[in-house]
Amino acid sequence: MMDAFVMLQELLEQNQFELIFRKSEETQKNKKNEIVDKEIRLVYLMNDTVESFLVFQKARMTGAYQKDYEGELEASISHDGKAYVLIVRQGDSVITIFFEDLLLEVHLYDYGEVGHLWVEKYEYLT
After folding, report:
1. What are phi and psi of 5, to 5 degrees?
2. Secondary structure of residue 5 in the 3-state scheme
3. Fewest CB within 10 angstroms: 5, 59, 93, 108, which?
């Protein structure tokens, strides 16, 4: 299996950076207005059979994340022995994620035994 940090580098090189936060009641802001969460997820692969995420563990984030940003990213990561710091520039916006570990989370779905039915007037068939 690939290393999660290699996978992160791959995403950033492809200008892919889609974060997923838990529900607002589970995500908090501290006195410095930083998002503090036990886990912040970054989408790695999403399709009909696989959902995979890179999960920033014991994470906090500063800056303004632009959910709909499309364009080039500038990113750097550093490690001080205890924690990691990821800095990502989305155009004029900069976010910083402080985290202790990066893990891969994968969910696989088997649709091999699921029937697919087409019902007239319920499908857009051309």
Report:
1. -70, -35
2. helix
3. 108
Question: Which residues lie below 8 Å from residue 15, measured CB to CB, with a gap of 6+?
Answer: 71, 72, 73
Q: Partners of 96 in the beta sheet? A: 62, 87
pLDDT in tens, 17-65: 999 887 654 456 666 666 666 789 999 998 878 889 999 999 989 999 9
Q: Using CA atoms, how far apart are residues 61 and 55, in angstroms rounded to an integer?
A: 13
Gap between the Cα atoms of 98 and 60, Å rounded: 5
pTM: 0.76
Burial class (CB in 10 A: 0-12, 13-18, 19+), 75: middle
Place of tokens 């930083």: 34
